[in-house]
Amino acid sequence: MSNYFSMEAFDYNDIQLVPNKCIIKSRKEADTSVKFGNRTFKIPVVPANMQSVINEQLAIWLAQNDYYYVMHRFQPEKRADFIKMMHDKKLFASISVGIKDEEYTFIDELVKQDLIPEYITIDVAHGHSDYVIKMIKYIKDKMPDSFLTAGNVATPEAVRELENAGADATKVGVGPGRACITKLKTGFGTGGWQLAALRMCSKAASKPIIADGGIRYNGDIAKSVRFGASMVMIGSMLAGHEESPGNVIKIDGKVYKQYWGSASEVQKGGHHNVEGKQLLVPYRGSIKDTLKEMQEDLQSSISYAGGKNLQSIRLVDYVIVKSSIMNGDI
Ligand SMILES: NC(=O)C1=CN([C@@H]2O[C@H](COP(=O)(O)OP(=O)(O)OC[C@H]3O[C@@H](n4cnc5c(N)ncnc54)[C@H](OP(=O)(O)O)[C@@H]3O)[C@@H](O)[C@H]2O)C=CC1
Ligand SMILES: Nc1nc2c(ncn2[C@@H]2O[C@H](COP(=O)(O)O)[C@@H](O)[C@H]2O)c(=O)[nH]1
């Protein structure tokens, strides 16, 4: 049993990273690329595998442009064709699965048809579970060459157990999401201390971690990297784009897009075990520009870290400033 009472609880708002002497002439020299599985991606950012964030068209564009993506699992019958379509285009396939009985049949069917995705993500709310461990073992047995991420979890114990079961990466974050009401409805999760949870989990991890949920500013990506993330999963900040699946809504001359949680009533089509809500996020133009801006801001972060690549961010000092980083600015 871990003792969390003595743990320092802090979140993205509570931390500032401490600059080091700059060693590059231009921020353009800073390398933001990250290896995840067998591939190298432009930035350590992945749009959330939610139906309000990603669709097939966006997945194709992301894969074509060296961004990591994870397709959602909410149209299960389309997943086999999706893998085939991506492979026909010579692109990598990255899908999500759940843990219900029919998912075992789905994995068997993929193996039978020789449709092996390069990346698989086991995506459930409470990933520290024997049923997730069983699914990890099943997938690694049937598809040993697929890079398997499992989540979501909140503790070092969970990270270790999923890694030991065979997961190639774990996804950390229970309840910090913008569309999340898990923290309110169940009293559990990493809402308000996601960054501290990430720190704790990454100390225990021997494989990559995806930090999932709670990113509100581009600088939070660098903070996630500092505290051990190899990848950062983002929902709300990537949901308001031209390419995003949500409907456009206009109110008083302002333009928004719908963003809904994967455990919301909208997604589930019913009101049992609802742990998510729908909200509006401001329309932000093309996702291409937002991803480019994230890359440029990360290049600046690397420069402030006094290095040339993401590794330099992992080594910087930090200060806990307890919700005062806005300094009255907003
Ligand atoms: N990151 C986060 O904080 C959260 C994310 N989500 C997202 O919502 C989507 C739906 O998630 P989920 O409901 O897990 O998917 P599923 O509906 O596939 O449920 C997962 C399975 O685990 C069982 N289960 C047992 N305990 C729990 C529990 N506490 N929470 C959820 N399932 C449990 C479920 O059975 P039964 O339904 O009968 O209980 C079901 O068989 C996913 O995309 C998930 O990532 C949802 C909540 C939190
Ligand atoms: N508790 C819930 N969490 C959810 C739900 N749908 C998605 N999610 C998680 O949120 C992140 C995205 O977070 P954001 O802060 O960037 O918006 C996503 O990747 C999931 O892990 C939900 O219905 N309930």
TrEMBL record:
One function term, GO molecular function aspect: GMP reductase activity
Keyword NADP: yes
Reactions catalysed, as given in the entry: IMP + NH4(+) + NADP(+) = GMP + NADPH + 2 H(+)
This protein's name: GMP reductase
Assigned keywords, A-Z: NADP, Oxidoreductase
InterPro entries listed in its UniProt record: Aldolase_TIM, GMP_reductase, GuaC_type_2, IMP_DH/GMP_Rdtase_CS, IMP_DH_GMPRt
CDD domains membership: IMPDH (cd00381)
Keyword flag Metal-binding: no
Primary enzyme class: oxidoreductase
Record family assignment: Belongs to the IMPDH/GMPR family. GuaC type 2 subfamily.
Annotated source species: Lactobacillus jensenii
Binding site for NADP(+): 209-232
EC numbers, comma separated: 1.7.1.7
